[in-house]
Write a structure and sequence with these properties.
Blueprint: H1 4-11, E1 16-21, E2 27-32, E3 35-36, E4 41-46, H2 50-57, E5 60-67, E6 70-86, H3 88-102, E7 115-128
Antiparallel strand pairs: 1-2, 1-5, 3-4, 4-7, 5-6, 6-7
Length: about 130
């Protein structure tokens, strides 16, 4: 279960940093849109992206979500990828995220491969500031 403060940060149009591990163990971090379903942090990406390959190979990830109005208020969630969802649900989800962050549906021409929702179960959660 996600802590309430983590959910509040993920509910807002706050960006996240997703860190995955490359095959040689080196970390790789990306700025991402973020969501949750009360139990999991949810990231939406494409199946052809390196971050997705990293998560399939090694499900350990860290997600840090920061408050856009106060970047010293942030949450760190360390966890594991426990589920992926493809197809129409993942495609609809990227539109919902785009509306949250930009006010409009996701640009169809920006999609290079199949969209996928990645569910991350928390192992450790910490909230700072606020």
């Amino acid at each position: 279960m996600l802590e309430e403060d983590v959910k509040k940060l993920a509910d807002g149009a706050n960006f996240a940093a997703l860190t995955t591990l490359l095959p040689d163990g080196q970390p790789m971090t990306h700025a991402m849109w973020v969501d949750h379903d009360d139990e999991h942090v949810i990231i939406n990406t494409e199946v052809a992206r390196t971050k997705f390959a990293n998560m399939q190979r090694d499900p350990r990830v860290t997600v840090m979500v920061w408050d856009r109005d106060d970047p010293y208020h942030y949450a760190e969630v360390r966890g594991r990828v426990v589920d992926t969802i493809r197809g129409p649900e993942a495609r609809a989800h990227i539109d919902a995220l785009s509306r949250k962050y930009t006010g409009r549906d996701y640009d169809e021409s920006a999609i290079g491969s199949e969209r996928v929702m990645v569910k991350i179960a928390p192992h450790r959660q910490r909230v700072y500031g606020g």
